[in-house]
Automatic annotation (TrEMBL):
<dbReference type="InterPro" id="IPR036237">
    <property type="entry name" value="Xyl_isomerase-like_sf"/>
</dbReference>
<keyword id="KW-0456">Lyase</keyword>
<feature type="domain" description="Xylose isomerase-like TIM barrel">
    <location>
        <begin position="37"/>
        <end position="300"/>
    </location>
</feature>
<dbReference type="InterPro" id="IPR013022">
    <property type="entry name" value="Xyl_isomerase-like_TIM-brl"/>
</dbReference>
<dbReference type="GO" id="GO:0050114">
    <property type="term" value="F:myo-inosose-2 dehydratase activity"/>
</dbReference>
<dbReference type="Pfam" id="PF01261">
    <property type="entry name" value="AP_endonuc_2"/>
</dbReference>
<protein>
    <submittedName>
        <fullName>Inosose dehydratase</fullName>
        <ecNumber>4.2.1.44</ecNumber>
    </submittedName>
</protein>
<dbReference type="InterPro" id="IPR050312">
    <property type="entry name" value="IolE/XylAMocC-like"/>
</dbReference>
Length: 308
């Protein structure tokens, strides 16, 4: 007789250029891409994201060689979109997405992380547009995101996972719920970033339990509650907040990651959980020791022990 007990879920732990202070394709304050690959492998990770397109080599054959000889595999690519602006931005958006999606697929990954555009600049803090969407903009955001999910799936075989993010329009519990309720689960899943969601006042475990079928990918991150309180009180933009250290090394911040991983494991499906400790800018020798300690901490978390 066949058992009806679901097979244990695998939580695949990885890291990303973000944890090495990389926010842009080219920036003199960032570590060179080959150093990132060397150190992320040395820290004990086997999975990585592509990071900002153009930071890692964009030639698939070269990137496959560079990652394979370090024992690394790509889990996802990342794109930035402003789909609430409607069909007028579709062609420009698709031009941006297509190259990244092609490289992501060529590297054997199955996910494309989609980050909504910022209402204020993440580097300068300049206010770019109203922080609240109109009803029309919400409709455009959801319908155009569904269109993106369909096109990416049909053309590249990838699943989009939308990433709620500070200083974007998909940020708080209210806005994340509204976005999920208005989009098709067959086309749009969620990349739950525990740090960004806590930054915006959300409860990651509650979100996983409430929208279990929509959780398609995880970013593991914590915020320093004391720094966050000051950031919120003084309306500090995200970039300067990161420079203050608002995103901190686990397990020193919130949310606690053990319950998040436990809730994710209870979904009974395989998930990537990619460490992303925002650090921009940061000294070049700072990331590796943090990455090592974080990997060991996650090994000690019960749900992460079965990761591959």
């Amino acid at each position: 007789m066949t058992s009806s007990v679901p097979s244990p879920a695998r939580i695949r732990i990885g890291s990303a250029p973000d944890s090495w202070g990389v926010w842009f394709p080219d920036d003199p304050r960032q570590v060179p891409w080959d150093r990132f690959l060397d150190e992320v492998s040395e820290a004990g990770y086997e999975w990585i994201e592509l990071g900002p397109y153009g930071y890692l080599p964009t030639d698939a054959a070269r990137l496959k060689d560079e990652t394979a000889r370090r024992g690394l595999t790509v889990s996802a690519g990342t794109v930035f979109t402003g789909l609430h602006h409607g069909p007028d931005v579709w062609d420009r958006t698709w031009e941006h997405v297509a190259g990244i999606a092609a490289l992501t697929r060529a590297m054997g990954a199955e996910h494309l992380v989609v980050i909504p555009s910022f209402w204020r600049d993440d580097k300068t803090g300049e206010v770019l547009e109203d922080r609240t969407l109109t009803a029309t903009q919400w409709r455009e955001l959801t319908t155009q995101t569904e269109r993106l999910g369909h096109e990416v799936r049909e053309r590249y075989g990838l699943r989009i996972v939308v990433h709620p993010h500070a200083d974007t329009h998909v940020d708080t519990e209210e806005n994340v719920n509204r976005f999920l309720d208005a989009t098709d689960p067959e086309l749009v899943s969620l990349c739950l970033d525990t740090g960004h969601y806590a930054y915006c006042g959300g409860d990651s475990v509650k979100l996983i339990e409430t929208y279990a079928e929509r959780i398609g990918y995880l970013h593991l991150k914590q915020v320093d509650p004391e720094i966050l309180a000051d950031v919120v009180a003084n309306e500090v933009p995200f970039g300067p907040a990161v420079a203050r250290g608002v995103m901190c090394e686990p397990p020193g911040g919130v949310p606690a990651l053990e319950p998040v991983l436990e809730a994710a494991r209870a979904l009974h499906r395989d998930l990537f959980a990619i460490v992303e400790q925002d650090m921009y800018p940061c000294p070049p020798d700072k990331p590796l020791p943090i990455a090592r300690r974080t990997r060991e901490f996650l090994r000690a978390c019960g749900p992460a022990r079965s990761s591959t």
